[in-house]
Structures are given as C-alpha cells and as structure tokens.
Write a structure and sequence with these properties.
This protein is α/β, with parallel strands linked by helices. About 35% of the residues lie in helices and about 15% in strands.
C-alpha cells in the first residue's frame, strides 16, 4: 500500500498531506498494542492539524501504553480521484494501514457542513455506512465535538457519541473496549457497557416517534437507557493534559503556531453563541501552568508565534501578569504573542502596547449588531461608546486597520439595524481621522457579515432562520450603504448557512438526506471549490423532506426538540428566560458580575466555578 501511495503522490496537490512522518508523530509496535484507534478529522490535513482538540486527544490516547491512536484526514478531490482509480482505501498517516484495519474509528465533529465528509471517508475506507450493518466488535464508529450536542442527523451512522470534553471519558471508553475485545463480547454487550460511561450517548437505545404533522412528539429510552445523557467536563483543568510535545506539520497549515488554551467556558451569555453555553462552566489555568506549558511547547516545536486560545481571551482574570511573563520569554527570542478573541469593552492601551512588542498583529472585534437595541437583544453587552473608545485607543497606538464581524438575520433585526452597521463603520472611520497617529497607509476597515444560524442549547434555538433571499436583500442593503474606499465588505454564502441551520436543528430523518447528498457527489462542503447546493436540494427532494421544516420553523416552548435527550448542564428553563429577555432587548449580566443560575455549576463534582 505504501508503494502505491508513493506512486500517486506526484499527481496531487500538497502531497505532504498524505504521508505522515512528521516530527513528534507517535509510532508504536503493533505487537505491543491491544487497541488501535483511527482518529478521523472530516476535513483536510491543514484544517485538522490546526485543531487543538484533536491534538489533545491524540496525546491522551497515545499516553496509554497498549493503545495506538493514528490520524486520518479527508483527502482533497484530486487525491480521492486517484484513490478510486487505483482502488486504494483511506489510510492512517502513522502506519499507512487502511482505516478498516482499526478497532475504533473516532471522529471529531465541529461543523455541520463536514457531515458529507464523514460518510465519504467511511465509504473510502470500505466500511459500511450504517451502524446496523456493522455487526461485529471491529470498526466501532463513534464521535465527539461540538456537533454531537445534536447528533440526531448522524444517528444512523454512529454506534455512539461521546459528549463534552474527552480527556477523561475517552480513557474510560477505551478501558471498556479493551475488556470487550479481550473477553470476546459481542457488539450489543459492548454498547450496553459503554452507555454506562457518563457522557456516552448510544442513539440505538432511543426510539424517536413523530406525529401526523411531521413533528417529533416523543423520545422513548429503550432497555433501561437513561432519559438524559449529560456532557462531561474536565474537573481540574489546571492539571489536565496539554500537548507540549506536539506534532510539527511537514507542510503549511491554517494555524501554524503554538496554541495555549488559557481557560474553558465563557462568562458571557451571547444569545446566539452555542459555544458560550455548551462549554460552561468557566475553568481557567493558572499563570504558572500556562507559562510552563508555553515555554515547553515553544522550545520543542520551534514555532515563532504563540496564540492565547479561549472564547474570550480578554476575560482571563490574570491576562496582564500572564502576558508580562510570556513576553519576558518571547520578546528576546522574537516570538510573536497573539491575543485573538478580544472584546471591545475591556481592551486597554496597556494591553495593546504589549501585543505589539514583537510584531503588530491585526485587531479584530465582533460587535455582531449595528444598533444598541439589537446588541442588547442578543446580550452582547458592549456599547457603541466602548467600541469607538477601543478603536480610538488602537488608532492612537499606531494601528490603521481593524476587522469587524457582524451577523445578519438575528431575531428581531430590522432594516434600521442593518443600516446601523454602516453607521457604526463610518463613526469608526471618523474616529480614525480625528485620533490616528499614523496616516501613511490610510485607514482600512474590513467588515464581514455572517448569516445567523439558530443552534441547539442557545436561547435562540427555538427561532426560525430568515430565508436566503431575505438575507441577500439585507446584505445588498448594507453593501449599498458602505461606499467608502476605506471599507472592504465580505459576506457569507447564504445557501451554505441555510444547510447549516437544517443540519443543526435536524432530527434522524435527515440521515437519509445526508446519504443521498453524498451519493449525489456532496463532499468538502465547507470549501467553495466543492460546495454543490444542487446536490443537497436533489437529496431533499428525493427523500421527500422540506429543508424549511427545520431551518424556517419556529419551535414552540414545549416542543420536543431532537436534542433534548442530551444535557449540557444549562437548563432549558434558563435558556427560555433568556429567549424572552431577547424580545425585550433586556441584558443579562455576565457570570463574573452576577450568577444567574444557568445550572452549569452543578456539573462540578469537586470545587466551584471560578467565576
């Protein structure tokens, strides 16, 4: 198989994607291994190798002496053509063995538009797509990641899902499988025992029933399965595994730098943000731990940039002391310190001067909405004055460009809110003219708008998405209002976001649609070069399913939701209260200001929420 791979590599783009052999990859003796895991990322190498979660779990699994975890990525179109032409199955990078030779096949799923890649990767591996067709203990297929908070569209294809953070639960799952394999269990026995691991959801243990109106009306646990499966969290994040000796890619990847995860969770409560609710409660790492991890990772990798990773970096309580100590190490070595995910309401001149010590990075902020009324409705908790003050601070410090992210189609949005984006942009441009200390290159304001997608476990999970045609109208309205040459405007493709909404709020009936779409040629849907909207529309038509039933339907307060078997720790009652607050444009304070009793603290079995 290796010789065949070598022969076809000259025919494809970026052959380094497919060969492995990188510094710090882990290779074990097969004779010493009891369990082999093919760890699959349903996108290309350069996307998957930028994923910190995958790097963490790769290290966690390979720390177990008799477990060997290897990486598998989706091939680009040219490689897939070569594979099919030469009957070459999908392989793992470390051993170049076919995925079909592995005991467990694990996927990490962070984006709904990767669903077609999952099925395509299984097909390229020669593995039956449906869980019911895989009757033995080999090729057990499971998944974790953000999308598993509503796994129902994928229920037909996966044996089980691991919900929440996997550092602990993955080890427990492997323990169960090791026993099953050693003692010769059958697959049903293994699944029953795996379901006892907290955070493991086995979809075949639940029956979904539908009413005459097509709506989901009941979810029935079978054979003693729990009514609710609650996600797992790492209890002591400060001592949890960090991949300091990380794989150094042999080719360029999207985020080619060291990522330092400073805390998990978010104190904010932006009502559109799934991560903000699903990753609660907040758990930080200490400054001492972070500095040690940073130095170890930079020494080992040789990277010249380190990024502080979190949902809202400037909300880390000890950010000042942390950046001081990191810069003491980084500045003499010409290592750039990058601070993404900054908020406009706590950005300071002092912080700005620190981040430009080695190299001046770009500034990015996400006001999300153009008017204060709508920012309050989505609970962004940032004012126009704070945005303008932040930009003034940046311009006075020598910055001449800023990136701004907004959403179109948010619940309660009007044309006035849309035009408010343009108004805010021109106020920022005026601030530059009044406060800039450097005018050599002029001002550059990059504006990007995304199409709002209602997501499970957010206060907007009950809301409908506006039609793509209406999104396009609002996008054009905004574009016509921003005529300055200093402003660059980009927007998301609406049909992709419509499909994202369908899959995000979908039920088990969408499995047939996904399978049909893949049969129609759907793959690599997140890439413009391959996204084929018509392949999906034909799939919906063939399956007799209206995508608007999922994307454009408002759910009632008491509707049975496809994902309600799963708990992320935040109560449904809290989310509904936040939903009502949105339509009053009433803000809810962040967790640090006041605990509002969302329920996430109850996930702790030891200690209390840091906030």
């Amino acid at each position: 198989m290796t010789s065949l791979i070598e022969r076809i590599l000259p025919n494809v783009q970026k052959p380094a994607r497919y060969v492995g052999g990188e510094y710090n990859q882990i290779v074990k003796n097969k004779a010493d291994v009891a369990v082999r895991v093919a760890f699959c990322f349903p996108d290309t190498y350069e996307i998957g190798m930028s994923n910190l979660g995958m790097r963490i779990l790769y290290g966690v699994m390979n720390r177990i002496p008799d477990v060997w975890c290897e990486r598998v990525f989706a091939p680009w179109g040219d490689m897939e053509e070569e594979m099919r032409a030469h009957h070459l199955p999908l392989w793992a990078l470390e051993s170049h063995d076919s995925v079909k030779e592995f005991d467990l096949i694990a996927f990490t799923i962070g984006y709904e538009m990767s669903y077609s890649n999952i099925l395509n990767m299984l097909a390229l591996s020669g593995i039956p797509l449906h869980a019911s067709e895989r009757t033995g203990l080999e090729n057990i297929v499971f998944a974790g990641g953000a999308c598993t908070y509503n796994p129902e569209p994928l229920a037909d294809f996966f044996d089980f899902f691991s919900l929440g953070e996997g550092e602990d639960s993955t080890v427990e799952i492997l323990d169960v499988y090791r026993r099953a394999k050693a003692e010769g269990w059958d697959k049903p026995s293994f699944l029953r025992e795996a379901a006892k691991v907290p955070g493991v959801y086995v979809p075949s243990f639940y029956e979904h029933r539908y009413g005459p109106d097509g709506k989901l009306c009941e979810i029935v646990p079978l054979d003693g399965a729990p009514a609710t499966v609650t996600k797992r969290i790492v209890q002591d994040f400060d001592s949890s595994f960090y991949p300091a000796r990380d794989i150094v890619p042999s080719t360029e990847i999207v985020h080619d730098r060291t990522n330092l995860e400073i805390f998990r969770g978010c104190i904010r409560g932006c009502r559109f943000c799934q991560a903000g609710f699903c990753y609660r409660p907040v758990r930080p790492r200490s400054v001492d731990t972070l500095v040690r991890q940073a130095e170890e990772a930079l020494e080992d990798s040789g990277n010249h940039e380190i990024t502080l990773s979190s949902l809202s970096t400037s909300d880390y309580k000890q950010l000042g002391p942390l950046t001081d100590r990191l810069l003491d190490y980084c500045a003499p070595r010409k290592i750039n310190l990058s601070l993404p995910s900054l908020r406009a309401d706590n950005f300071s001149r002092e912080l700005m001067m620190k981040v430009q010590t080695v190299r001046k990075s770009g500034l990015t902020f996400a006001p999300e909405a153009g008017t204060q009324r709508l920012r309050d409705a989505i609970n962004k908790n940032v004012t126009e004055e704070e945005i303008l003050t932040t930009c003034a601070t940046a311009f006075e410090g020598g910055w001449s460009s800023v990136k701004l992210y907004f959403m179109l189609g948010l619940p309660t949005e009007t044309d006035e809110d849309v035009l408010g984006i343009a108004d805010l942009v021109y106020k920022i441009l005026k601030v530059w003219r009044e406060r800039a200390t450097s005018r050599k290159r002029g001002c550059r304001i990059s504006v990007a708008t995304a199409f709002f997608v209602p997501k499970p476990f957010t206060p907007f999970q009950w809301e409908a998405q506006i039609p793509p045609e209406e999104y396009t109208r609002r996008q054009q309205l905004l574009r016509e209002a921003m005529y300055s040459k200093s402003v660059e405007y980009k927007w998301h493709e609406p049909h992709l976001s419509r499909l994202e909404a369908v899959l995000a709020r979908g039920d088990r009936r969408l499995g047939a649609v996904i399978e049909q779409a893949v049969g129609n040629g759907a793959k690599l849907d997140a890439w413009d070069e391959y996204f084929d909207y018509s392949a999906w529309l034909r799939a919906f038509e063939a399956c007799g399913i209206d995508p608007d039933f999922y994307a454009r339907r408002e759910f009632a307060k008491d509707d049975v939701l496809p994902w309600q078997t799963i708990s992320v720790g935040v109560s449904r009652g809290f989310l509904w209260r936040e939903h009502e607050q949105a339509f009053r444009s009433a803000v809810t304070p962040d967790c640090r200001t006041q605990c509002m009793g969302c329920g996430a603290n109850e996930l702790y079995t030891e200690g209390e929420c840091d906030e």
